[in-house]
Specification:
The protein has 34 helices and 24 strands. The strands form eight sheets. It has an eight-stranded mixed β-sheet with strand order 8-11-16-17-13-14-15-12. The chain has a three-stranded antiparallel β-sheet with strand order 1-2-3, with no helix packed on it. Helices cover 36% and strands 12% of the residues. The longest helix has 36 residues. The chain binds a DNA duplex (15 and 15 nucleotides) through α11, β14, β15 and α20. It comes from Panicum virgatum. It is found in: Nucleus. Keywords: DNA-binding, Metal-binding, Nucleus, Transcription, Transcription regulation, Zinc, Zinc-finger.
Length: 945
DNA sequence: TTTTTGCATGTATCA
DNA sequence: GATACATGCAAAAAG
């Protein structure tokens, strides 16, 4: 039987390239590798390359391994078909099924198993080419080849790279020389032999049996699930780890490592390979090895020695410093330290005899979890814990998930700036199966014995998002603090919490708590921050800001996933209410799609909650509540209160500078203001959740609503007299306003043509607007031309003739609908919107510009559409008379926005505007009326719906 | 036309 | 300044 496998045509050593003349020709006899391939040895250069060959070309008799290396049992040939009957040993020889089983049993019992060659407990394979490899002839040690060029020992595979030296330490341990570890003198790796001279030092070392996972046979082997014989590459890594002698076993690090994980292990036989737990399960040798895996974090500056949040706050959460093995950096970034929970331990270690060695973890980025199916691996982690790869194509890698399902990935790298970027390809099925998304965490561990790679996962949680959002500078609510402070018990069992902090790019919990724990009095009062009242002091804010700057781009990107953003809606809004432009900040006007936005270079400041009201006269007031007496005091509009405020701080009103002073607002007025404020807040929420409302509304009115939304009026629909912010703050990640939610041009998910989401509606509306503008411009041009023509033709005509009137004057002769349309498009053409457009102040604005200036479109009708629920609410609560009270009330009384029933509102609006309207041109009034009527009609449609 | 693939680039972080 | 990494982008491949 001939297996159609690739046959080497020539020596793959670029320095050699000797052609292969056939079976056994110029090539030395090969030896089978675990993968089922043959390693060939070039007679010319003396290097060996792993190649696939026809099994009947290199027959068993020639390769000399047909007998079991342990018991001498006659085996089948090395063809794939008979592969199940033996186990290929990487270093040569084969192992029969019986020995495989025995080996497994011995391994499980903790006995040292002479895994490869029974005759030799110590295979010394270092040295020059003239050294005899102990216990084995050169040809019988397939992984070992002498580099004849430099007379050094070189071990190569098909990629023409020197690779591992496998040392059998006490019959069990092997070691993998890793280039970077050799370079790292601090590792104190104690090798058994003088420094190894390596051929082709410029190339990375490769572990043994690299071919094992590169061939299809490997997959089949994995399916056998024999933990003993299934010596995956990771096994070699683990074995290599065990071969390191460490000089730190009994020093302070050991103690610190012990303190890192305190809780007893879950199962007597399930060992998380860290800390003192190892003492009961591992041999002293192993213990010494493992201890170094969990070196204590370097002490932080100012970090309290007694407060270890990992230990005190999250006893169920194990923050394991990963094994300091591998070829990569000996110190992985803390954000990759695996945080493994008891639950995950249990989940992973289905085999009670297994030892879990957490390796690293990674928070999935958007691209990781995306459809592209590539998971970017931290370089250091990939180099440390995954099999070494020398070619960009990498190698297949089988990783088992916590459910026991095996996933086959391609582990590879891309050259990147003289470095490498490691990726796992083909992760989409796994990601989807586990329902992972950006922000979730994937953990990689290794099961000992067996060295099998396993991956766990941890879903992101609300808290993750919240913390991340805080770190992102986008959220500062009491939620986090109350969670952290008040629900320690919950947090302690909350695996995602710590992870989330980690996910926020090293916002380590110790840091989080260091802040207050290190304060002089250990005051944690700010953790109990009242939603609107007290809040983190300036230092706290600085702390958060400082932390937020540490957020990596990856965190920024995935943290505000759509769902999370929606979940954060309320707290985001709450935070919004506390945001004010910095007093000294001057906005930069930016144009986004022809609309004007204010951008602030300086971050907004957190202010004490205040309520803005507007009087019938149009004057605005700011009301703030005393932290002592809870009375509401009036403040000047521009004042920003950024800290605790009491009546005694009221330097603007001497009459109210004491808590004993009576409240300016009557209880009824106060109630009305607060009710409307709350209602406005709720409806503002509906702005953020516009999609829901849109879905419920009649399509014919969506356009109007979308228009209102994009004009910034939906959120301010109830702000006729109550407003919370004076400006739309700078857009931030997570902002769900109509502008921010739109994907970049051409990006984002495809929407159905009938989709009624606000994005699609906005796009349609904008298209509509565009067409309207185009039409309008054309119309204007035609009119202008006609006008000029007529003017020229009638230039002798007396003034006052209709034909000589300006286009604007001509407008007044149109029918009302045309006028309204013109008015609207004129405003759209203006392109400047005020996010805080206020009907009551519109007139002033217009007054400044004069009647010749285009006026903001009347949004009364649109607001009416959107404010219908409030109307109902007002009606139900008997607040319809409020408008009347406003009109007749004292000037000092807060004027509650007229939110009466429809007719009342219209009347109120007309009343309120009327005084100014009279000063305007009659035709302009007609325009507004027409527009209002038109919008009223659409509002009626909504009501009918 | 869509998906895959390989590389380039921008940004955040680290030393 | 160097490095790591998330993601954009264009070419290639596949459907």
């Amino acid at each position: 039987m001939a297996m159609p496998m690739a046959v080497a045509k020539r020596c793959m050593n670029p320095a050699c390239g000797a052609p292969a003349t056939g079976a056994g020709g110029d090539w030395r006899k090969g030896w089978p590798l675990r993968s089922g391939a043959f390693a060939l040895l070039c007679d010319k250069c003396g290097l060996a390359y792993e190649q696939f060959v026809f099994c009947d070309i290199f027959h068993l008799k020639e390769s000399g391994w047909r007998d079991c290396s342990f018991c001498g049992k006659r085996l089948h040939c090395g063809c794939v078909a008979s592969k199940n009957s033996y186990d290929l040993l990487d270093s040569g020889g084969v192992q029969c099924v019986t020995c495989m089983k025995n080996s497994a049993a011995q391994s499980a019992s903790g006995q040292v198993v002479p895994k490869l060659f029974p005759c030799q407990n110590n295979l010394r394979i270092f040295g020059k080419s003239d050294e005899v490899l102990s216990g084995r002839k050169f040809e019988q040690s397939p992984s070992l080849v002498l580099d004849s060029r430099n007379d050094d020992l070189a071990i190569v595979n098909k990629s023409n790279h020197p690779f591992l030296v496998k040392s059998i330490e006490a019959g069990q341990s092997s070691s993998i020389l890793r280039q970077k570890e050799i370079e790292n003198g601090s590792r104190q790796i104690k090798w058994e032999q003088p420094p190894l001279s390596i051929g082709d030092m410029g190339k990375p070392f490769l572990t043994r049996s690299q071919s094992a996972l590169e061939s299809p046979q490997c997959t089949r082997r994995d399916d056998n699930k024999d933990p003993t014989t299934d010596s995956t590459t990771s096994e070699s890594i683990s074995e290599a780890c065990l071969s390191m002698s460490l000089g730190i076993a009994n020093n302070g690090n050991r103690m610190e490592a012990t303190s890192t994980v305190e809780r007893p292990i879950l199962s007597p036989t399930t060992v998380i390979a860290e800390g003192r737990e190892l003492t009961t399960a591992l041999s002293p040798f192993q213990h010494a090895q493992r201890a170094r895996h969990f070196l204590t974090r370097p002490p932080r500056v100012g970090e309290g020695a007694v407060f270890d949040p990992t230990r005190d706050m999250f006893p169920h959460l194990r923050v394991a410093r990963p094994p300091a093995e591998g070829r990569g950096r000996n110190q992985l970034l803390p954000r990759y330290w695996p945080r493994i929970t008891d639950q995950e331990l249990q989940q992973i270690s289905g085999d009670s005899n297994s030892t879990i060695v957490p390796l690293f973890e990674k928070v999935l980025s958007a691209s990781d979890a995306g459809r592209i199916g590539r998971l970017v691996l931290p370089k250091a982690c990939a180099e440390a814990y995954f099999p070494p790869i020398s070619q960009p194509e990498g190698r297949p890698l089988t990783i088992q998930d916590a459910r026991g399902k095996e996933w086959h990935f391609q582990f590879r790298f891309w050259p990147n700036n003289n470095s490498r970027m490691y990726v796992l390809e083909g992760v989409t099925p796994c990601i989807q199966s586990l329902q992972l998304q950006a922000g979730d965490t994937v953990t990689f561990s290794r099961i000992e014995p067996g060295g099998k790679l396993v991956m766990g996962f941890r879903k992101a949680t609300n808290t993750d998002s919240q913390i991340s959002a805080i770190a992102n500078g986008s959220l500062l609510s009491e939620t986090l603090f109350s969670t952290a402070n008040d629900n320690l018990g919950v947090v302690s069992g909350y695996p995602g919490f710590l992870q989330s902090i980690k996910g926020a790019a090293d916002l380590h919990p110790s840091s989080l708590y260091d802040h207050h724990m290190n304060s002089a009095d250990g005051d944690v009062s700010w953790l109990k921050a009242d939603k609107f009242g007290s809040r983190p002091d300036e230092g706290s804010l600085q702390f958060l800001q400082k932390r937020s700057r540490n957020i990596g781009s990856k965190s920024r990107r995935f943290l505000m996933d759509a769902e999370d953003a929606m979940e954060l809606k309320l707290t985001w809004e709450e935070a919004q209410e506390l945001l004010r432009p910095a007093p000294t900040a001057k906005p930069t006007i930016v144009m986004i799609e022809d609309y004007e936005f204010e951008e602030y270079d300086e971050p907004p400041v957190f202010a004490k909650r205040s309520i803005f009201t507007i009087r019938a006269t149009g004057e605005q007031d700011q009301w703030i509540q005393c932290d002592d007496c809870s009375k509401w005091r009036r403040l000047p509009l521009t004042v920003i209160i950024a800290s605790k405020w009491t009546c005694t701080d009221n330097s603007w009103d001497p009459k109210s500078c004491s808590c004993s002073a009576p409240e300016e607002l009557t209880p009824k007025e106060l109630q009305s203001v607060l009710q409307q404020y709350e209602e406005m807040r709720r409806r503002k929420g509906s702005y953020y959740g516009l999609k829901l409302n849109v879905a419920e509304m009649d399509a014919s009115n969506l356009d109007a609503l979308a228009t209102a939304a994009v004009f910034g009026d939906v959120g301010n629909q109830g702000t006729a007299s109550v407003a919370t912010t004076t400006k739309h703050p700078r857009h931030r990640p997570g902002c769900t306003c109509i502008v921010c939610i739109q994907p970049p041009s051409g990006k984002g998910p495809k929407h159905n043509p009938s989709c009624t989401c606000n994005v699609c509606m906005t796009v349609r509306r904008r298209f509509k607007t565009l067409m309207m503008r185009k039409k309008q411009r054309q119309s204007e041009r035609e009119e202008a031309e006609a006008s000029k023509k007529m003017a020229w033709m009638n230039r002798d005509e007396p003034e006052g003739s209709n034909l000589s009137r300006s286009p604007q004057t001509l407008d007044t002769t149109r029918d009302s609908s045309d006028v309204a349309m013109f008015d609207k498009t004129a405003d759209m053409n203006k392109g400047h919107i005020d996010l805080n457009f206020h009907p009551a102040v519109r007139d002033d604005h217009q007054g400044q510009h004069g009647t010749q200036q285009p006026r903001p479109v009347s949004m009364v009708g649109l607001m009416e559409v959107a404010s219908r629920p409030l109307d109902n609410y007002m009606k139900q609560n008997g607040l319809t008379s409020l408008a009347g009270e406003q009109g007749g009330g004292s000037s000092s009384t807060a004027t509650v926005p007229p939110a009466p029933v429809e007719s009342e509102e219209r009347a109120s609006n007309e009343l309120r505007v009327a005084s100014v309207e009279r000063e305007r041109e009659p035709d302009a009034m007609a325009v507004d009326e027409a527009g209002d009527n038109q919008q009223d009609k659409s509002g009626d449609d909504v009501a009918a719906t």
